[in-house]
């Protein structure tokens, strides 16, 4: 079956709210998952159904910070809880220092941070990120002003960790970012999967035009996850449901 972008965002938002995520966080989660899935990077396929409740503390813990570096401990939370904060902190530091690195440690679903990075890149700055999760090593790099990144993945075995560290690099000087990304990607002995920004954009536009492909069982599970936020109807609620 296929669903529209708006249907997917609404269903995910309800499901994350039903899992106990706070207002703002569940809306971000819905946007992040939908965007990644439409780009062909499997956002919807990556999350647990029903979505897992929030694991992080009320606020992220700042482990270290100076003018151009920061380390944030997410405490096992989803990227949707603190990823936007990390991306905008990198942006703020890079504007002042020219180059910044922000690490978001102990977070789940690190690949879903890409939409947050896209929103930063669209403000006219170069930004990149890399991380390692259960499927291998990943990286994504946005040109200044770009909506979609160049993405790469190196598959690895024995990387079965639930939580990961996302390293974000942000700069006003493209040469610095290119050098850093190239260094991270230097693994000539293994095969790399690369997807261009052009291809990700084409995937996104196709999903926008044709709808997002979802297995019926997955769609049913997603909608079932929203039940905790639905109010059971009774005689009083039904009486007040229509126009007065």
Descriptive notes:
This protein is an alpha+beta fold. The protein has 9 helices and 10 strands. The chain has an 8-stranded mixed beta sheet, with helices on both faces. Helix 1 (5-18) crosses helix 2 and helix 2 crosses helix 4. The longest helix has 19 residues, at 79-97.
Large-scale geometry: globular
Helix content: 40-55%
Structural class: alpha+beta
Order of strands across the biggest sheet? 2-3-4-8-5-6-7-9
Q: Using DSSP, what is the number of strands?
A: 10
Biggest sheet record = 8 strands, mixed
> How would you state the average pLDDT, rounded?
82
Low-confidence stretches: 231-244
Distance between the termini: 38 Å
Helix count, per DSSP?
9
Encode the helix/strand succession as letters.
EHHHEEHEHEEEEHEHEHH
Strand content: 25-35%
Radius of gyration, in angstroms, nearest whole number: 19 Å
Name a few traits of the molecule.
9 helices; two-stranded antiparallel sheet; alpha+beta; single chain; 244 residues; 41% helix; 10 strands
Describe the structure concisely for a colleague.
41% of the residues lie in helices and 25% in strands. By secondary structure, the chain is of the alpha+beta class.
């Amino acid at each position: 079956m296929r669903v529209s972008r708006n249907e997917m965002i609404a269903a995910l938002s309800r499901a994350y709210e039903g899992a106990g995520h706070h207002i703002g966080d569940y809306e971000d989660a819905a946007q992040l998952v939908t965007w990644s899935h439409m780009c062909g990077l499997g956002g919807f396929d990556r999350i647990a159904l029903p979505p897992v409740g929030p694991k992080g503390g009320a606020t992220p813990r700042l482990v270290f910070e100076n003018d151009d570096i920061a380390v944030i401990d997410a405490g096992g939370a989803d990227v949707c809880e603190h990823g936007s904060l990390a991306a905008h902190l990198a942006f703020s530091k890079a504007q002042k220092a020219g180059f910044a690195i922000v690490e978001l440690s102990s977070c789940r679903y690190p690949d879903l941070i890409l939409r947050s990075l896209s929103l930063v890149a669209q403000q006219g700055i170069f930004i990149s990120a890399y991380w390692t999760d259960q499927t291998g090593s990943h990286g994504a790099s946005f040109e200044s002003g770009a909506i979609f990144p160049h993405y790469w993945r190196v598959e690895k075995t024995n990387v079965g960790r639930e939580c990961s560290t996302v390293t974000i690099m942000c700069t006003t000087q493209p040469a610095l970012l290119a050098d850093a990304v190239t260094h991270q990607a230097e693994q000539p002995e293994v095969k790399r999967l690369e997807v261009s920004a052009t291809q990700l954009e084409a995937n996104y536009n196709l999903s926008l035009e044709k709808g997002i492909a979802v297995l019926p069982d997955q769609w049913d599970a997603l909608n079932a996850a929203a039940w905790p936020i639905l109010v059971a109807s009774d005689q009083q609620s039904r009486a007040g449901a229509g126009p007065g």
